[in-house]
Amino acid sequence: MACKYLIVFFLTFSVFLNAQKTNDYEKVALAEKIYLQLDNRVYNSDATIWFKAILANAATHSTELSSGVLYVDLINSDSEITESKIIKVTNGIGNGYFDLDRSYKSGTYQIRAYTEWNKNFDDNFITNETISIVSETSIKPNKNSANEVDIAKNKSINEDSINLKFFPEGGKIIANLDNRIGFKATNNFAKGIAVEGEIIDKNGKTIIRFKSNRLGLGSFILPNVSASQSYQAKLEKAKKSVLYQLPRIHSEGYQLSVASRKDFVVATVKHNTDFNANIKLSINLRGKTYFEKQATLIDGRYIFTVPKTLFPEGVLEIKLQNQSAKPIAERLFFNNRKSYRLNVDAKIDINKISKRDNLNILLKTKNSSDSIVPSNSSVLVFDKNLYGEFEANRENILTYFLLSSDIKGEIEAASDYFKEDSDINIDDLLLTQGWRNYKYNAASKKFQYVMETGLQLKGVINKKSNRAKRNNIDIMLMTFGDDSSVYTGNVSVPSNFNFQIEDLYGDERKLVLKPSGISEKESQYYNISLTKKAGLKPDFVNDEIQNSLVDKDSLIDTIVKIKQNQRSIENKYYTDINGVNQLDEVIVDAYKMTPKRKEMFDKYGKPDVVIDGKEINEKTKKYSRGLYSNLIGFHDKVLIRKDSLRNYYAETTNGGKGHVNMVIVDGIPVNKDDYESIQYINPKEVTSFEIIDNPSKARQLHATIYGFYPFGEFKASIISIYTKAGKGLYGALDIDQTLNVQTIKAFSIEKEFYVPDYTDATARSIAEPDFRSTIYWNPNVVTTNGESQSISFSHSDDVGDFLVVIESISKDGKLGYKTLEYKVIETQD
User: Fold this and answer.
1) Strand spans (E) along 262-401
2) Pairwise CA distance, residues 643 & 632, whole Å
3) Mean per-residue pLDDT for 567-593?
4) Are 659 and 695 in contact (CB under 8 A)?
5) Which helix (DSSP H) or strand (DSSP E) does residue 227 occupy?
6) Which residues pair with 129 in a beta bridge?
7) Among candidates 406, 366, 370, 498, which has minimal Cα distance to 121?
8) Nearest-angstrom CA–CA distance, 518 and 468
9) Considering the entire predicted model, what is its pTM?
10) Share of the chain above pLDDT 70, in %
11) Is residue 608 scored above 70 in pLDDT?
12) Can you give the three-state secondary structure of 589-647, one letter per residue?
């Protein structure tokens, strides 16, 4: 147990930031972006959702000055939080997981990520990702939840109707000038739809023809617009003859047009009547002003030529002001600087392998000078035929940081804008996105929330009695568990206090908070309590239409059939070696199949020993040391041993030399370093103590607990403990009830993605089926100056085409994205 001095600090950080205001930055530039990469978009109800989070400053994309605490929620379609995680973030990088179980219903879910600091910016920088969870017994997700859109209701709407909107560049159509006009065509489900047609004047004369891209976006030049005219659009091949009115024409005013000319951004300002007007042009990117210049029109025109290298890559906000500093035209424009990105140089040693072969990837991240630079990368591998369409449409690291995180609302097929062979133009998109959709135009307001660098415990101390004479008092905080620590600090009485403690893991942990340095009697004169931090309320309204990137139902149908076939192969294997079908639900008389038990049953098999919690508590002694001391009387079912340090531990009666006992509490494997704490589980918290001899997937569980995969002959048992709280080991430890015991949320324990190592011939020959939805996942591949990284993993029993996705970021915000492919064939005998 470590003893530390507890630092008590008050809310001065936000006061400091509120005092800071420069001419270059808006306050919203201090927000942090949260990029969430998931390993998939469709999950079986017994799968694990793996994710990586990147936190970066909104303006610079630097990861160095980011929060150290990230909150991640899994929310169902009834807008209920089903599980929450607190993720430790270091230098802007964090990762975590959600272990699903059979209690999850088929349907659409949301994963939401936010920081305490980002609460200052409304919901502009809160990240939401939509996923599907499907049970193997259900082909299609349940769409009857209260907040889901009933698609059937929309059938009465004419699906052939087209909404066509026009967006003059700069904001207005100005008479007597050539005007560029963007347009957007959507159906009644707000999805882009390809159109073509013609612009006609009020006399029906065709002025110009236009054609959109496949997403319904495009632009055209309306020449020498007349103030006395009005213009309409007429679509071809439309089932209904509908005319769409263009915006009204202004008899006088400024026009702002922007274009890319090689290495320059060229902004042209015109006025149709005031040929010598004084103007000011400013160009901002993500809340920072990079360029400002005043000028005077010459013959009604002025051209600003600005080097692209003046700005980082991203969405520029170009503003035009008159001599009274009044905004008169705005334009969003994308500064495309591919040389500013990381060059992800990755190669696969062999592009065609057999099942269970080893694959090696050499990874380098380079700058524009071709030098290897430090970065943090993720490597994700999955079945291209099954999940490749999701990857093609999902938001990736480039899409998020350079586009969608800066623009409000949904951007259809956002990733397509960054593909090398893209058939769509990002400028067509930004012409239809008014400046009001730019997140950095939000009004400044006082910051209420601080940037958390670590776990914070906020509380209140008051005097309960007039016998409490002290105005300052020492407080002791003690945490329990294998990593238990004691902190002390001094606070004023009465006051609110805020403790920042070192890393504490275990999802939920118990601690004691009490006065220190005074008698127990005097301690009773003071009341100390922690205040619960209010999390964000969920606000998930699932719109199946908006969330459909691909034909999800068809894909889910395919995934379910594949998983059912794989489960059949697994069951046959485990039946052959154990003589037990793991789906046989007839176990023991009166055995209640709870979701946790069902999950354990499906994964590891039926229990051979079941001791009910009531039986255990009947044997509780007055001076019980915890669960294991109560189990001494059940020697016919479990053996309780004592080591030289008088610590209790359990063995199964089916043991013997080389037999391994592994412990799971509430479905959560207990780390080997925490085994000593199991003896202290409160017997009153236990609902059942069970033993599974010769379990299925024992080798994988051993690798999870001990960190290596056992080869050769291997015999094992699982001790499975269920508690009332269902929170795992730390939610059930026996602690002195006379103490002021409080429960807090701690960091989620990191979990390593397990991959069998088939480079060993013995391991490769093991017949146990290996079907992984995600073939490989490594969220934290770190490259250093001048060095490459070698990534190696063994493939599964799946064959076909597979996709490797690599996403990278440097500390100073450079981004990189790369995909590789390889093929797997049946093993050649």
Assistant:
1) 264-271, 278-285, 288-296, 301-307, 314-322, 327-335, 343-348, 352-354, 358-366, 375-383
2) 14
3) 59
4) no
5) none
6) 111
7) 406
8) 11
9) 0.83
10) 87
11) yes
12) CCCCCCHHHHHHHHHHCCCCEEEEHHHHHHCCCCCCCCHHHHHHHHCCCEEEEECCCCC
